[in-house]
Amino acid sequence: MKREVIWLRSDANYYRAMHERSLKREAELKKTVEELQAQLRYERQQRFGRTGDESSPGHSEAQAPKAQAPVRKRGQQRGNPAPRRRSLQGLPVREERAVVAEAQRVCSCCGEPLVEGALADEEVSVVEVEVKAHVRKIRKEDRMRR
Questions:
Q1: Is residue 110 part of a domain?
Q2: pLDDT tens digit string along 85-96?
């Protein structure tokens, strides 16, 4: 009988300890759930919360007049003048001479050879912009070395 009492008491102590551990674990899990729910609530508020440009909470969508103009498409708008051409007066001019090939010295309509000097009056404007690639190195100076 004594052995049985000792065995039952040890079992009772074991199950009591297991119950206490499960209660502690349950409390930790509840705390974690509360923290995660608070974090989710905060993120939802950040993402879907009210902004300052919305109407007041007393007005419904049916009461609020829709005063927004339709969104205009991008690009040239109908009824507006075309944008002005950019002035090229400030650009430096570098004159080049081009030699016209023998095959191109004929009239495109009738095929007769062009008169000498006929092409000299014709000017063709070509705007070129020279771009050079470079690597920009920035070195930080030590102010203590000065």
A1: no
A2: 888 788 777 777
Q: Tell me the average pLDDT across 60-73.
A: 66
Dist CA 13 CA 5 (whole Å): 12
Question: What does the angle CA 92 – CA 96 – CA 99 come to, to the nearest 5 degrees?
Answer: 160
Q: Among candidates 122, 119, 125, which has minimal Cα distance to 102?
A: 119
Beta bridge partners, 106, equal 113
Query: Which one, of 126, 125, 103, 124, lies nearest residue 113 by Cα?
Result: 103
Least confident window among 26-30, 51-55, 89-93, 95-99: 51-55
Residue 61 lies in a domain: no
Residue 99 within any structural domain of the chain: no
Q: 67 with 59: CB under 8 angstroms?
A: no
Which residues span the domain enclosing 12?
Answer: 1-48
The residue among 100, 90, 88 whose CA lies nearest residue 125 is: 88
